Amino acid sequence: MSKKLTITAIKKRKGEKPLVMITAYDALFAKLLEPSADMILVGDSLNMSFAGRSDTISATLEQMIYHTNAVCKGAPESFVICDMPFGTYTCKEDALRNAIKVFQKTPADCVKIEGGKDKAGIIKHLTDNGIAVCGHIGLLPQSVRSEGGYKVKGKTADEREQLLKDAKAVEEAGAFCMVIEGTKAEVAKEVAQSVTIPVIGIGAGAEVDGQVLVFSDMLGFFEEFTPKFVKKYLDGATLVKKALQEYADEVQNRQFPTEEHIY
């Protein structure tokens, strides 16, 4: 990537070259991902990938700020999105105060808010006060407990209609793009065509304006479970284990360090 994308440039990609978004949580991986990604999402999924939790709910604003700073340090030329964690935007006042904290304490380019029509007022309050917002509709990981699990959206006519309303409400509230997650592909396509801002899919088919994946899923580091929508581009866990075993064997057999590694 030659230079950092702007919000204007991202919006111009609507219906054109699909946008590439990937998660990152630290400077090391952010630097590796930067050349290929249009946008880097510091997702609250770090609560699962890094902290080993069963969901994203207990991620804190302090965690998100810490990891966002690390990612921005490693990928200074990337457009970086900070997830607003559960409980930090339950009302307009809290949302603005916490989003301002993110903007003041990190170089993040925008924040991401889960919710559609029900969160439109909060999104508008943020955008009216100088906070760039990426929306998030469809399956909402922060609502997993209230919904009783991760459930694919868009299966019924009512869900389809609600998703269309959600997308339009998020757009009208001033979001410059949105993520749509865990949604039937034909419905996600219709949603993307119904708004003028880019719609980034995750588990929502190919007929949207871009894709996002969790880096540890697509690189094969997370072994416990692989969602249906994830393609593993690398068998990362196996490669790491093999390298570590080779290291252990050489240490135990006094084959490492050799002369070239000794002062």
Automatic annotation (TrEMBL):
The keyword Glycoprotein does not apply. Its cofactor is Mg(2+). One of its GO terms (biological process) is pantothenate biosynthetic process. It comes from the Bacteria. GO terms for cellular component: cytoplasm. GO terms for molecular function: 3-methyl-2-oxobutanoate hydroxymethyltransferase activity; magnesium ion binding; methyltransferase activity. Pathway: Cofactor biosynthesis; (R)-pantothenate biosynthesis; (R)-pantoate from 3-methyl-2-oxobutanoate: step 1/2. It catalyses: (6R)-5,10-methylene-5,6,7,8-tetrahydrofolate + 3-methyl-2-oxobutanoate + H2O = 2-dehydropantoate + (6S)-5,6,7,8-tetrahydrofolate. Belongs to the PanB family. NCBIfam families: panB, PRK00311.1. This is 3-methyl-2-oxobutanoate hydroxymethyltransferase. It comes from Sulfurimonas sediminis.
